[in-house]
Amino acid sequence: MPPGHTGPRIIINGGERILHAEVGRPLLFTAMAEKIFIPSACGGRASCGQCRVRVLSRAPKHVPEERAVLTADEMARDVHLACQLRVTEETRIELPPGYLKARQYRARVARMRDLARDMREVELDLIEPARMRFLAGQYVQFLRPELEHDPRPLYRAYSMASSPSSDFRISLLFARVLEGEVTSYVFDRLRPGDSVTVNGPFGFFHLKESTRQIIFVAGGSGIAPIRAMLLDMAEKRNARPAALFYSAHTPADLVYAEEMRARERDMPGFSFIPVLSRPAPGDRWEGEKGGLPAALLRLLPELDDHEAYLCGGPGLVDSSINALKAKGIRDEQIFFDKFS
Ligand SMILES: Cc1cc2nc3c(=O)[nH]c(=O)nc-3n(C[C@H](O)[C@H](O)[C@H](O)COP(=O)(O)OP(=O)(O)OC[C@H]3O[C@@H](n4cnc5c(N)ncnc54)[C@H](O)[C@@H]3O)c2cc1C
Ligand code: FES
User: Fold this and answer.
1) Which of 25, 77, 189, 230 has a CA-to-CA distance to 335 between 20 and 30 Å?
2) Nearest-angstrom CA–CA distance, 133 and 138
3) 270 in Cβ contact with 264 (< 8 Å)
4) What residues does 52 pair with on adjacent strands?
5) CATH superfamily ID and name for 9-99
6) What does the pLDDT look like over 120-140, one tens digit per residue?
7) How many Cβ atoms from other residues are within 10 Å of residue 129's Cβ?
8) pLDDT at residue 332 above 70?
């Protein structure tokens, strides 16, 4: 037991790791102090739902913040949010094994590029450890350090936009959120050469082993993990037919568009369909316009044996899933990450 810790034990995965709870401290932060990185995209505000864990022993009652996020079925199975779970007696917890493999990385900002209005790509050179093994589609938690006006360290999730083959330098794509705590730091203060900390990798959003045709759907910065998947497919000469529907407001908001058009030429079977929701008359846009779900309904054939991978804001992902289902795709062939 670490000196000074007298709290009850938290036994993870049958004893693979044992922690000592601190009274009043949520599991998420107790685990983090012991270098166990449970995913957290909202920094512990009970909004992202990424920190779900299952309690195997007698579980405390769910607090209102958990009831707002978890389904009735999850609560019946004693799933809790690690950011809200405060244990008062010895507790057995089940975590996906991958969580225990996530590490903390020290990195340096190698390059920053503004790819569109309020859309910044940040390349990070990993220093310690110097390499990260991840699957295309996974994400890291980026740490916004303590600031003079705000001493709380904050974590948010960002998907790798680069290929897993670049395991020493990873790219993240940040969309600025108005008054967002972490994205304001990235846009207003972060500079090339700065040291940063990321934890990971996390997530189950990655290409499944299959030969099915793929429908990719991305909105805004949701293009990041899809780009990683496409880079990975190109490097591995994976010839699965794939169509990418990408939603943005105006032509100036499309990122990686030239790269995707070049990919159409290099990867037979790949097509890129940008869909703009607000092109101005001066944009001279001749491509698809309107909402992305409407474009899916209009342009796709009946989907009998396809897989869909969707990424972006919750509204876009949910409405696009409804459109894909109306086209016949089955629930078990739909995979997504919502950037909430
Ligand atoms: C698995 C996963 C992967 C993600 N990957 C990426 C990624 O690759 N690139 C990326 O830019 N983001 C990504 N996100 C979102 C990211 O984690 C943050 O939520 C986002 O950057 C906002 O952080 P912030 O601290 O700047 O804003 P916050 O301070 O958390 O939010 C400020 C306010 O804005 C609202 N808000 C938060 N996000 C949005 C939004 N997108 N649009 C409108 N309002 C919003 C909040 O509800 C809050 O009221 C991902 C999220 C998840 C769950
Ligand atoms: S960290 Fe618990 S819900 Fe986001």
Assistant:
1) 77
2) 10
3) yes
4) 81
5) Beta-grasp domain (3.10.20.30)
6) 999 999 999 999 999 999 999
7) 14
8) yes
* CATH class of the region 102-202: mainly beta
The region, left, alpha or beta by phi > 0 then psi within -120 to 50, assigned to residue 220 is left
Is the CB of residue 31 less than 8 Å from the CB of residue 37?
yes
In the chain, residues under CATH classification 2.40.30.10 are 102-202
Q: Provide the CB-side half-sphere exposure for 46 (13 A, CA).
A: 16
Whole-number Cα distances in Å, 107 to 101, 123, 140, 160, 165: 18, 10, 12, 14, 17
Radius of gyration of the chain, Cα coordinates, nearest whole angstrom: 21
- Find the residues whose C-beta lies inside 6 A of ligand 1: 41, 48, 50, 139, 156-159, 173-175, 177, 179-183, 203, 221, 224, 313, 337, 339-340
pTM over 0.85: yes
* Residue having the nearest C-alpha atom to atom 43 of ligand 1: 177
Of 326, 164, 311, the closest CA to residue 244 belongs to: 311
| Chain position carrying tokens 């690690």 | 82
Q: Which atom, in ligand 2's list, is nearest to the CA of 44?
A: 1
With cut-offs at 50, 70 and 90, classify the pLDDT of residue 59: confident
The fold of 213-338 is Rossmann fold (3.40.50)
Q: Are the CB atoms for 138 and 160 separated by under 8 Å?
A: yes
The amino acid at residue 111 is R
Q: Note whether 158 and 203 are within 8 A (CB).
A: no
Nearest CA to ligand 1 atom 5: 158
Residues of the chain with CATH 3.40.50.80: 213-338
Q: Residue 3: is its pLDDT beyond 80? A: no
Domain with CATH 3.10.20.30 in the chain: 9-99
Distance separating alpha carbons of residues 122 and 228, to the nearest angstrom: 14
CB 171 within 8 A of CB 228: no
